[in-house]
Amino acid sequence: MRNSELPEALLGRRDIIDEVMNSLRGPDWHGSLIMADPGMGKTTVAAAVLELGQGRLRGFHAFASPVLSGEPYGALAPFLAGLPMEHGDSPKAVLKTLAAALRTEANECAVLVIEDAQFLDEHSAALLAQLAVASGTKFIFLCSPFPAAPAELWAMCSDGLLKFLEMTPLSPETMHELCLRVLGQQVFPGTNAMLCRLADGNPLYLLELISHARNSGDLVEVDGVWLLARIPSGSTSRMRDSVGTQLQQLAGTSRDALEHVALAGSLDLETLYQVADRAAVDDLEEARLIVISKVPSRRVCFSSPRMGAVAAQLLPTARSLFLRRRLLAKVDLNRERGESLVRHVGWALEAGLQIPDSVALLAAQQGNEHFLSDVAERAAAAVTSPGLSGGARLETAKAMLWRGDRRRFSLMITEILEQSSDPETVQLAAGVCGHVGLRPGLETAAIAELVVSWREAVHRLERSGAFHGDSERAEHHTGLRLLEIQGMHTQGNYQGTEQELVELQNSAVAGTVNGVVSATLLCEARTATGRAVEALKSSALATQLLAQGDGRLAQLHEFVTRRHLSALWHAGQFDELCRFVNQEAERHSLSLLVYGGTIHLAKGLGDIGQGAMNDGLHKLMQAVAALQVSDPGNDLPLGLAATAYTASVLGRESVAEKYATLYEAAAPGRDVATRLRSRAYLLAARGMFEGNPRPSLRRVADEAAALGMLHVEMEVLRLGIHAGDLGLALRLKAVALRCEGQAAKYAAAYAMAISDRDATALLAFSDEAQGQGRELEAAWSAANAVTLLSRRGDRNRLHNAQRLAKRRLAGLVHGHIPLSERLGSGPQLTRRERKVAALVHGGASNRDIAAAFGLSLRTVEGHLYRIFAKLGISDRTEIANTGLDSWQF
Asked: What DSSP line would sit under 48-74, residue for residue?
C-alpha cells in the first residue's frame, strides 16, 4: 500500500501496519504490543489491520481503564457473561469462558484488540498470556508509555510471543503531506511549516490544530491560498479530552510537576525542583512527557509543545494563579531570557506585581524579537523610570509596527526623536524607522523627513550635553549619513556610494547598528552596479555581525536578508538562494508570519530564473497571497508583475491578466530598482498577448543604464530579447561582460551567439544551459536559433532546430514533473499516439511501428514529434523507462 493510497489518518504508518500484519500471520508470533502517545493513531492502525485481514481475521475489542484496573478481569468482563458467579475466582473457568467467547469460524483467526492495555489488571494480563499459549488467539495490545504496561505483557515480548512496536512521531515530510491533504495543495509553505512544528509529529494534534485555526480565523484563505494570520491559540474539545485523560492518569505529585512545566512553557530544572517533587520529575522524564536539555543550562519543557499548551489551558483559573505565584516566588527574572522571560513578566504584570524597570524593558525587547507584541507592549508600559522611558516608548512603537498599526508607530517614533534625551534611544528609533518601518511606496520622501528629524534631534542632544563623548556623537553622524545613502539608493543613485560605504564600514564600531547597515548598503550598491559576487561578501559580513550582536540588532534581520537574497539572485546562485531560504524558514519560523511572502517571492524568482516556470508560478502565486496579508518591504508590486510574466510564458493568459490588473491597482514599488524590474516584467507579460513591448522595454533599460544599475539593465535586456528584439544582443553582451556572477556569464554567452547570428552556437548554448539546469536560457536560445535559420531559409537545419525548440519550450510548460504524472495533465495523447508510445515502450523501432500500422516512416516521425512536444520530453528513453500501464487506454 503506497503512501498516496493511505487515508489521512494512516499517513506514514504503512510500515507499522505491515509489521502488525506479519505478527498476526506467522506461527511464531501471537500478535503485537503497540506503544505510542495518545493521538499517534494506534487505534486507527489496529482498525486498518483488521480491515486488511477481512475474511481471515475477526476482531474482538476490550477496553481497559484506570477504573477497571482494580477489578480482577475487569477489562474482560464483556466476554465473561456466561461465567457462573461461583466460578468467578477460578482462572481455569475464566480462561475456558474467554476462549469460548473468542471462538471463530474454521477459516478465521480471532484477534483480541485491547485499548489502553497499560491499565490491565494483573489477573487479566496473566490470563491473556495463558490464552496466547493455549489457543490460536492473536492479540493487538495498544499502550501509552505512561504508566508502564503490566509485567506479563513485557514477558510475552521477551518470550517471543508478542512483537513490540513503537509508533514514533511522524516525520516532518509526512506531516507536511498530511497538512496538504487536509487543506489542499494551496497552502503557504510558511504556514505549513508552522502548523507542523506546533503539532510536533502528532497527527491528531495537527488535524485538530487546523480545524481550530480555521474556525477561530487564525488560518485564513487569501486568493485560494491558506495562510496563518497569527499563531494559533486555543484548542478543540477533542484535544482537551485527549490531554485531560493523560493528566488524570498521573499520580498527584507527577501531575503537580507537569502542571508547573505546562504553565511555564520552559523552566529551569533547579527552579522546578524547588516547587515540585524530584522523584516525580524523574518519573516524567522517564515517561518521556518532559525533556530536560543538557546545555547550555538544564531547561525543562514538554516533549510535545502542543500538549503542554493544551495542558496549560486546562488549568482552572484559581489553580493557574496559584501556580504562577509559586513560580514567580522562585524564578530569578534577572537570569531569565527569551520567551521564558516574556511569559514570566506577563504573569507578574497580570498579578499586579512590581518588577524592576530594567527587567520589564528587557522583556519588552525580547517580546518584540519573538513577535509577541501584546506582552511587549504591556511590559513597556510598566517601565516608570525616566532614564528607561525612552527605550520603553521605542519598544511600544515596535510592537505597533509588528501589529501593523503604522500610524501609531510613526507618531511614537516622531515623539521619541523630538523629546528623548537618551542618544542611544534616538539612534535606535531612527534605525527602526529608517531600515524597517518606512511607509510603503513613500520611502524616498519618508527618508528625507527622517533625516531632518534625526539631525534636529542630534543638534538638540548636543546643546543639552547629552552625548557621552565624541565617539557617541560620531555614531549618530555616521548613522545619519548611512540613512542619506539609503535614500540615494532608493532613488537609483548608486554611483559614487561604494567607496564611501567601504570607508564607513571600516570605521564602524564592531557590533553596532552602523556596522551592519554599512555592510548591507554596500551589498546593495555592489548588486545594483553589477558586482553581485562582491556584494555577497558584504552581505555575508552583515549576516555575521547580526549573528554576533545583541538583541538591539535583531530589528535589522529583514533589512539584511532582503538584500542578501537580491545579491544571490543577481549572481545566479539559485541553489544557494534556495538553501538560504530554507535555512531562514527553519531558524526564524515566527518571522514567517511577517516576512513569509518576501522569502517565498525570492524562491519563486529563483525558479523562473532557472526556467522552472510551473514551480515558479506556484510559488509566486503563494507569495503574492502572503504579501497581501503582510508586506513590510513593499514587495507586492514585484511579486504581481513577476507572476503575470511567468503565467504569460506558460500561455495562461487569464492568470497573467489577473495579476497584471492587480499590479496596476497596487502602490508603486518602494525603490527605483524594484519599480524598473516590476515594470519590465509587466511589459514582457503584456507583450506576449497584445502589442509590441520592445520599445517600452528599451526605455526601461535606458533608465536603468542612466542610473548605473547594470544588473537591472541586464535583466531588462534579456526580457527584451525574449520578446523578439534581437537587436539588443550587442548591448546585452557589453553589459553582461561588465557584471559578475553566473547569470552574467550565461547572458554574455547567449548575447554573443545572437549578435554573431550563429545558430550553431545558439543550439550548443541551449544544450549547455539545459545541462546546467538553466532551462529558460536553453528554451529561448533554441527559439532564437529557429528565428535565424528561418530568415536564412536553411530548411535542413531548421526542422531539427524547431523540434528542439518545441521540446525546450514544452519543458518550460511542464517543468520538472515526472512523465508518469504529466500523462494525467496537460495535452492528452490521442488513441493512435498512445498505441505508438506503447510500441516504443516495448522497444519497437520506427520501421517496426510503420509496419504495424501500415504507415510511412515520415508519418511515424510526425506522431513521435507530437508525443514529445505534448509531454515535454526530448527522446524515446523517458517513454521506455515509464511503466507500461501509463500507455494503456
From this structure: HHHHHTTTTEEEEEEE--TTGGGSTTG
pTM greater than 0.85 (yes/no) = no
Please calculate the CA angle 192-626-672 and round it to the nearest 5 degrees.
140
Distance (Å) of CA 302 to CA 213, 279, 293, 324: 22, 17, 11, 17
- 736 closest CA partner among 756, 760, 710: 710
Cβ proximity of 266 and 300 under 8 Å? yes
The DSSP call for residue 140 is E
What angle, rounded to 10 degrees, do the helices at 513-528 and 470-490 form? Answer: 30
CA distance 265 to 330: 16
Considering only CA atoms, which of 126, 129, 123, 118 is closest in space to residue 74?
123
Residue 462, sorted as left (phi over 0), alpha (psi -120 to 50) or beta, turns out to be alpha
Which helix (H) or strand (E) covers residue 267, if one does?
A: strand 266-268
Q: What is the pLDDT of residues 538-592, one digit of tens each?
A: 999 998 888 887 767 877 888 898 899 999 988 888 888 888 888 877 777 667 6
Closest alpha carbon to 438 in 489, 377, 372, 365: 489
Please give the backbone phi and psi of residue 825, each rounded to the nearest 5 degrees, phi first. -140, 170
Distance CA 238, CA 39 (A): 10
Q: What cell does 571 get?
A: 549572481
| Grid cell at residue 415 | 515623539
- Counting beta carbons within 10 angstroms of the beta carbon of residue 86, is it exposed (0 to 12), middle (13 to 18) or buried (19 or more)? exposed
Distance, C-alpha 740 to centroid of its chain: 31
- The residue type found at 278 is R
List Cα–Cα distances, 589 to 102, 197, 364, in angstroms: 52, 9, 20
Q: Which amino acid is at 467?
A: F
Q: Are 97 and 82 contacting, i.e. CB atoms less than 8 angstroms apart?
A: yes
CA dist list (Å): 529 to 496, 704, 708, 740: 11, 10, 6, 10
Q: What is the three-class DSSP state of 266?
A: strand
Q: Cell for 374? A: 501584546
pLDDT tens per residue, range 70-120: 888 888 988 888 778 777 678 888 888 888 888 888 788 889 999 999 889
Give Dmax (Cα) for the chain. Answer: 107
The SS3 of residue 299 is strand
Give pLDDT tens digits for 423-454.
888 888 888 888 776 654 456 677 888 888 89
Q: Which of 519-528, 564-573, 758-767 has the highest mean pLDDT?
A: 519-528
Nearest CA to 37 out of 201, 151, 150 is that of 201
